[in-house]
C-alpha cells in the first residue's frame, strides 16, 4: 500500500472543510493512519515547499502556510498518490473539474484549501516531515476486503 500526505491548509480549516475532505477520502476507500492539527513555523513551511523556492509566490505561500492552523493527514491505499491528486483537482481551481475538491470548493489558486503529495518520493519525504513514526497508526480496516480484490 502507498502512503501520502494530504493536508487541509489554513483557508480550508477556517472555512470548516476538514470533515468534507476527510469524508471524500474515506468514502473513496482510503485509510487514515495519521492526523494532527498544527500551526507550522515559517521554517517548516519553507522546508515543506522547498521545491517551489524559485517561484515568485514562494515567500507568500510559506507565510500563509505558517499563519494559521494546518491539518496534516497521512492516508494509505493502493495508488493513493495519483488518485489523491485526481480527487483534489488542478492546483488552480478555475482549471478543476466539478466533482473534485478544488472544483467544488475553491475559487482562487492562492486559496486552494488542500495539499497533496505529487509523487511517491515526495510523499515519503512529506510524511516524514510532518509525522514521527510513532504518530502513524498501523491498523486493519474491516472494509478492506470490500475495497480491494
> What's the CATH class label?
Alpha Beta
Can you list the strand order of the major beta sheet?
A: 2-3-1-4
Amino- and carboxy-terminal Cα gap: 13 Å
Q: List low-confidence stretches.
A: none
Total strands: the figure is 4
What is the H-and-E element order? EHHEHHEHHEHH
Mean pLDDT: 97
Looking at the structure, the CATH topology is Alpha-Beta Plaits
**Can you identify the CATH superfamily?**
Nucleoside diphosphate kinase-like domain
Q: Which features would summarize this protein structure in a list?
A:
149 residues; alpha+beta; Alpha-Beta Plaits; four-stranded antiparallel sheet; 8 helices
Question: What report would you give on this structure?
Answer:
Its cofactor is Mg(2+). GO terms for molecular function: ATP binding; nucleoside diphosphate kinase activity. Keywords: ATP-binding, Kinase, Nucleotide-binding, Transferase. It comes from Scyliorhinus torazame. The protein has about 150 residues and is α+β, with helices and mostly antiparallel strands. The chain has a single domain (about 1-135), classed as Nucleoside diphosphate kinase-like domain (Alpha-Beta Plaits), CATH 3.30.70.141. The chain is built from 8 helices and 4 strands. Strands 2-3-1-4 form a 4-stranded antiparallel beta sheet. The radius of gyration is 15 Å and the shape is globular.
Outline the fold blueprint:
Layout: E1 2-8, H1 10-14, H2 18-28, E2 31-38, H3 42-48, H4 58-65, E3 70-77, H5 80-88, H6 101-105, E4 114-116, H7 120-130, H8 144-147
Antiparallel strand pairs: 1-3, 1-4, 2-3
Helix pairs in contact: 3-4
Amino acid at each position: 500500500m502507498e502512503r501520502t500526505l494530504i493536508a487541509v491548509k489554513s483557508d480550508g480549516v477556517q472555512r470548516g472543510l476538514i470533515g468534507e475532505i476527510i469524508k471524500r477520502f474515506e468514502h473513496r476507500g482510503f485509510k487514515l493512519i495519521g492526523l494532527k492539527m498544527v500551526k507550522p513555523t515559517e521554517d517548516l513551511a519553507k522546508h515543506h515547499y522547498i521545491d517551489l523556492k524559485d517561484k515568485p509566490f514562494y515567500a507568500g505561500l510559506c507565510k500563509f502556510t505558517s499563519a494559521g492552523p494546518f491539518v496534516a493527514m497521512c492516508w494509505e491505499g493502493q495508488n493513493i498518490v495519483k488518485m489523491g491528486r485526481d480527487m483534489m483537482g488542478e492546483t488552480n481551481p478555475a482549471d478543476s473539474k466539478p466533482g473534485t475538491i478544488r472544483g467544488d470548493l475553491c475559487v482562487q489558486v492562492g486559496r486552494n484549501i488542500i495539499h497533496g503529495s505529487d509523487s511517491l518520493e515526495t510523499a515519503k519525504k512529506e510524511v516524514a516531515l510532518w509525522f514521527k513514526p510513532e504518530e502513524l497508526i498501523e491498523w486493519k480496516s474491516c472494509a478492506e476486503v470490500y475495497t480491494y480484490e
